[in-house]
Automatic annotation (TrEMBL):
One of its GO terms (molecular function) is RNA polymerase II cis-regulatory region sequence-specific DNA binding. It is found in: Nucleus. Its main location: nucleus. GO terms for cellular component: nucleus. CDD domains: MADS_SRF_like. One of its GO terms (biological process) is positive regulation of transcription by RNA polymerase II. PROSITE patterns: MADS_BOX_2. Residues 1-49 form the MADS-box domain. Keywords: DNA-binding, Nucleus, Transcription, Transcription regulation. The keyword DNA-binding applies. The keyword Transcription regulation applies. This is Mads-box transcription factor pheres 2.
Amino acid sequence: MARRKITLAFIKNQTNRKASFKKRRKGLIKKVEEISTLCDVEACAVILNPYDEKIEIWPSPEGALAVLKRYGAAVSGIHHRPPKEMDQESFILHRVKKNREKLDRLLMENKRNDLSWFMYRCMAGTNSLHNLDERERAEMCRLINQRIRDVDSKIENLMKEGVWWCGCGGSTSSSGSASSGGSASSASCCRRRGEHGELHADSDRARVQWASLDIDALPYPHLFTGTGSGAHR
């Protein structure tokens, strides 16, 4: 038979209240003793009897005092730490700040993606840098310079491994032989890679020359073809 659910409310009848206190006091001390014995933890119980001046202490006044001293030292150390708890207003402000930072990161990522697509369309000849304002040109130049650094880093890693690829027709190895349709002359040509400088926002002073562009190899090739939604109109 299931136990009857007890309603936690003040017992108005004094006789019943006193009987319940006596019963539950013994149960509480028994539970403290059990957890101390079974789990090998320091615990104590201090009960102020509302019906007389007697104070019931478990396990003993000395044992309870030792536990309370440890508790006081622990609380004192916590008070010297930065508070981790927040009220409702501080919690909401903290969440708003975090969400705003996340939104800023997403907006920046979307902006970079838009500039990347625009850059690919410029490479394909379906758009022009003249359509950008001065701030967007500066961002575009930073993006292109980052792409160049990424390509340089990739080439360096491939050369360290002894294999690299170029647009002359194939991959080459450290021995100088060409593969995948490349010739020895083209391979030797690829080793002499020229240095480049940083791009500037002023397109009149710095031009990017693109050759042998393979549109199908670019991300989102539909943006650069006449049938795609991003085609030049």
